[in-house]
Amino acid sequence: MIKMLKYLSLLFVVFSMLHSCKQKATNDSSPSIEPSSRYESEPLPSWNEGETKQAIVNYVQSVTETGSADFIPVSDRIATFDNDGTLWSEQPAYFQLFFALDRIKEMAPDHPEWKDEEPFRSVLDNDLEGLSKQGLEGLMKVVMVSHGGMKSEEFKTQVREWASTAMHPTKKKLYKDLIYQPMLELLDYLKQNDFKVYIVSGGGTDFMRAFVTEIYGIPTERIIGSRISTEFKIENGKPGIYRLPELEFIDDKEGKPLNIEKIIGIKPVFAAGNSDGDLAMLQWTASNSYKNFELYVHHTDSIREWAYDRESHIGKLDKGLDEAAQKGWTVIDMPKDWKVIYPFELGN
Questions:
Q1: Where are the alpha helices (DSSP H) in the chain?
Q2: Taking the CB of residue 23, how many other CB atoms lie within 10 A of it?
Q3: Alpha-carbon distance 161 to 141, whole Å?
Q4: Do the strands 270-273 and 78-81 form a parallel or antiparallel pair, or are they unpaired?
Q5: Distance from C-alpha of 277 to C-alpha of 293, rounded to nearest angstrom
Q6: Residue 118: phi, psi to the nearest 5?
Q7: Is there a domain that residue 176 lies in?
Q8: Is residue 311 situated within a structural domain?
Q9: Which domain holds residue 311?
Q10: Range with the poorest average pLDDT among 109-118, 138-147, 247-256, 337-346
Q11: How far apart are CA 336 and CA 25, in angstroms?
Q12: For position 38, what pLDDT does the model report?
């Protein structure tokens, strides 16, 4: 229960801010780029030339060149990436929270009593302020009803169906389209150089596995996140994995290196994140005896995406930003380093 309250308290802070969110303007002066077919001969084509891109390329070349003093065997080329705010957007709230709200609305016809019952009434009325007044107990009901009480495969099907049609409230794009084109290229670049890439995120494991495998080209077993408790049961002669209304593990902060050690069993040599929640993972990577690389995505683009860091309730980057400066980690400045943010901007 303590784990659940800790997790929901974070969602609750996020949730209380949604009613004040405003859509950001489209950047009509975004740098023009060449057609993607012209990028095949160069690494990281959606990255501007500069220190950040060169640091990544130099690192990969130094650890993959046979005979190099920094050479890393293929078996030890482990790269771990956070997801929310690192590979796709996370404002004005985590995408998984929007899924929970949409699921309640979808389930409502089978629950007519919800129109008079909190916290569901506030969700159905799009009354975010009213929902915030229900406190953690109310948010717990929303999350557990939308995420629990079903087979694991049923949940994944629901997520896939949602991801195929659900639109972001301000960007007016499918959530799955709000991935970062430069980071997709980085994933591919590492994979082309025999790095084994993992997602290590605070988001739900099953939520991500339902559709990000296709987006990122990363096998399901390499997608690691927070876990809801489950149980194995046989009903009507058929075995199934059933989701329970309780949280088993939070894959955030110190939970990330713990999960990496337990599931992967090899310390990463490359790690990327965007918040203080990823700091422990980057610190763990920095302790590797092999040459290592730590990367922070700093959200500095208020025009094309969002600008936030030290004071943000979502993706807060404070201690991590200071440690990156102290230790010489690479920090992405989005307007400076990225020609585009999203894949749909290609060719504009």
A1: 2-17, 51-64, 95-107, 120-124, 128-132, 135-147, 152-165, 181-192, 205-209, 212-216, 255-259, 279-286, 319-327, 334-337
A2: 11
A3: 22
A4: parallel
A5: 18
A6: -85, 150
A7: yes
A8: yes
A9: 48-94+167-345
A10: 138-147
A11: 18
A12: 38
Tokens of 67: 């005979």
Residue 211 belongs to a domain: yes
For CA atoms 209, 214, 219, 224, the dihedral sign is negative
Query: What's the CATH number where 282 sits?
Result: 3.40.50.1000
Give every CB contact of residue 293 below 8 A, 6+ residues apart in sequence: 55, 56, 59, 269, 270, 271, 285, 330
What percentage of the chain's residues is helix, strand, coil (to nearest 5)? 45, 20, 35
Q: What is the pTM of this model?
A: 0.87
Between CA 108 and CA 104 the distance in angstroms is 6
Look at residue 227 and give its three-state secondary structure. strand
Distance CA 181, CA 199 (A): 16
| pLDDT digit string, tens, across residues 156-188 | 999 999 999 999 999 999 999 999 999 999 999
Count of the separate structural domains present in the chain: 1
Q: 215-222: which pairs have CB atoms within 8 A and are 24 or more residues apart?
A: 215/176, 215/179, 216/87, 216/179, 216/184, 216/187, 217/187, 217/188, 217/191, 218/187, 222/196, 222/197, 222/198
What Rg value do the Cα atoms of the chain yield, rounded?
Answer: 21
Could you count the other beta carbons within 10 Å of the beta carbon of residue 3?
15
Counting beta carbons within 10 angstroms of the beta carbon of residue 50, is it exposed (0 to 12), middle (13 to 18) or buried (19 or more)? exposed
Q: Evaluate whether residue 305 is within a structural domain.
A: yes
Closest CA to 43 of 239, 182, 166, 180: 182
